[in-house]
Amino acid sequence: MVRVVFFGALVNLSVLIWNLSVVVCYLTTLVYHLSVVIYHLTTLVCYLSVLIWKLSAHVYYLSVVIYHLRTLVYYLSVLIYHLTVFVWQKTVVVSLFTKLFNSLFMYFCRNNKRVKQRRKGRKDVFKIKNVFYSSFIFALSAPLRETNMAKHTLEISYDYDFLLIGISSHEKDYRICWALNKKLGIDLVKQDSLEIKGKKQTTPSYFSFFIFDKEEDFLEYSVIANFSENKALVTKENTLFNEDDTSKKDQSENELLIPEQKQMNYFFMVRGEVDDDEAEELVKSIKEIDVVQTAIRIDVTQLKSKQNLIF
User: Fold this and answer.
1) Distance between CA atoms of residues 106 and 299, nearest Å
2) Contact 176, 271 (CB under 8 A)
3) Which of 81, 90, 153, 212 has the most crowded CB, counting CB atoms within 10 A?
4) Contacts from 93-97 at CB under 8 Å and sequence distance 24+?
5) What is the pLDDT of residues 87-132, one digit of tens each?
6) What is the 3-state secondary structure (H, E, C) of 209-266?
7) What letter does residue 202 receive in the DSSP assignment?
8) CA 143 to chain centre
9) What are the extents of the domains in the chain?
10) CA distances from 98 to 103, 115, 262, 310 (A)
11) Is this prediction's pTM over 0.70?
């Protein structure tokens, strides 16, 4: 009986050991699979980090491309601006050469008549010079004397596409420009006085002139006085000496840059792209300045003296 019990205990012990070995085997298998899962998770994290790095690199290169495109557009716009300025200056040069040629032509015509009148009855030494003058004038005036030839007239049209604001203020020019700089955040700098001489003027007029070029926005701000700098000098001279009607008329022509806007002391000009809302905001900001009595927007095309604003 004791042997049977001992044998049964041995059998149960062997079964227990076998079950324990099975449990250990399953545990090792579980640990193996857990390690495999961890390996795949780490691999997935690694690939995700690589993907994020590559995406960030692509975003960086895309931002670099956009930056260079914006720079290219900026320089293209600058090139177009300078081309337009060049074309405008070329038209001005052509106009100056045309006026110079007309002046020389009229001078030679008058000079030829005077030479002929002075040299009547003199010796024949001057005949060669008279023939030269006559031939030269004949060659110059030939196109004008040909009635059957088509006459071509060079017409130059100026660009008056800019914003003009009239400012009424009794302050000095440097004080009004200082106030504009402070209010509008610009930097107007005094330039050489603008010289303008009308057709009926005997002496030129000089007008104080300030300018600021905002290249990043392609805008040019300028302030020019409506009253000439030599107004006081002319008034003083005419008070000391007797003046006639001609001097009074010449004085009144010398005084104002735009005679039809006598109530305005200064003109604020903006060249460039400015829409109506921005223009109204500028007028409103200028009116808020303490030293400014009033400010109004002026239609340049309606001014008779608008050519004085081309400089």
Assistant:
1) 37
2) no
3) 212
4) 94/154, 94/156, 95/154, 95/156
5) 887 787 777 777 777 666 665 655 554 444 444 444 444 444 444 4
6) EEEEEEHHHCEEEEEEECECCCHHHHHHHHHHCCCCHHHHHHHHHHHECCHHHCCCCE
7) S
8) 43
9) 81-145, 163-309
10) 9, 26, 33, 18
11) no
pLDDT at 247: 43
- List CB contacts of 110: < 8 A, sequence separation 6 or more: none
Query: Which residues lie below 8 Å from residue 263, measured CB to CB, with a gap of 6+?
Result: 166, 168
The residue with greater pLDDT, 267 or 142, is: 267
Name which residue leads in pLDDT, 243 or 23: 23
- Residues in a beta bridge with 221: 212, 270
What are the respective helix, strand and coil percentages of the chain, to the nearest 5? Answer: 65, 15, 25
Separation of alpha carbons 59 and 172, rounded Å: 55
Q: No. of H helices and E strands in the chain?
A: 6, 8
CB 288 within 8 A of CB 184: no
On whether the CB atoms of residues 263 and 167 are closer than 8 A, the answer is no
